[in-house]
């Protein structure tokens, strides 16, 4: 018993010392955010404990909205738990992260979704980096094989959705899931994954950007000929507008693509996407984007904190690959976003029972869904951005 008490005392002081060390030298309240995330997650566990259900959002009455193992956002909740473990080194959070990660291995053979990078890649990459267990590596490889099945050689890209009013839709979000393929090549030496990812990006860049470097959300192809049929939106305001989270996905996805390929064309487009994003948030007092940059003024008050968190995290990696002056520029804009996100206007500082760090995110205003709500991926990318901020030397690795 004495040894147990001694261990707990040493651990608690080491934990506090680690977090205090982070917060003592930076201008972001890393300590407060991490501790708040711990409190909120424990409050959630106290009343909702099912490792086959994954926190996604809240209802208007404050009740948790959860998804099952096949929900596209399922991987973000264990991803958040892995970051709590990384920040605190508390074995409790590793136990919880594993409990919510392991069930998602059931998704590694799914061929009906393009979101395996979110669902499987996020939690299992962190599990593998933390534990080095071969079984987690194998899950990642199987998931990459499954994602590869959605690649159509004639189109040259991975199909996003089955069904709906499309012929062969490819959404900007797809760029995010390509990291799973790049990692699979790194893990196995099998270049087929890499070739699919590169083909996807090269074909995508032909049509994804407008002349001002804003992005289209949906590219619809003719699967027989591979020719482009239409450029549309599904979650943005209009086909001609720029959905802010889609723009953030483009910054992030193309930055990751450059990390793995060193292809300067990808870096060029990542910067252009970032510069467009920054130009538009620069004229907003708190810099947090509306859900769509081109929405009419009556709808621009609807913010998307998730787009801000994704962009901040992406900028903190992008700055590593550009000259010093541009790096400082991206660093400052990441800070501007994070300072707003960590302010009382967006951070749930005094209400741990919301179960979420961030408020004022928007999922799909085009269809009047998830408007001005917390969303799990907003929390995930906020913690990732803070991790990258406090570990600038290795933003591409978990530890």
From TrEMBL:
<dbReference type="GO" id="GO:0052757">
    <property type="term" value="F:chondroitin hydrolase activity"/>
</dbReference>
<keyword id="KW-0732">Signal</keyword>
<dbReference type="GO" id="GO:0000272">
    <property type="term" value="P:polysaccharide catabolic process"/>
</dbReference>
<comment type="similarity">
    <text>Belongs to the glycosyl hydrolase 88 family.</text>
</comment>
<feature type="signal peptide">
    <location>
        <begin position="1"/>
        <end position="16"/>
    </location>
</feature>
<dbReference type="InterPro" id="IPR012341">
    <property type="entry name" value="6hp_glycosidase-like_sf"/>
</dbReference>
<protein>
    <submittedName>
        <fullName>Glycosyl hydrolase family 88</fullName>
    </submittedName>
</protein>
<dbReference type="InterPro" id="IPR008928">
    <property type="entry name" value="6-hairpin_glycosidase_sf"/>
</dbReference>
<dbReference type="InterPro" id="IPR052369">
    <property type="entry name" value="UG_Glycosaminoglycan_Hydrolase"/>
</dbReference>
<keyword id="KW-0378">Hydrolase</keyword>
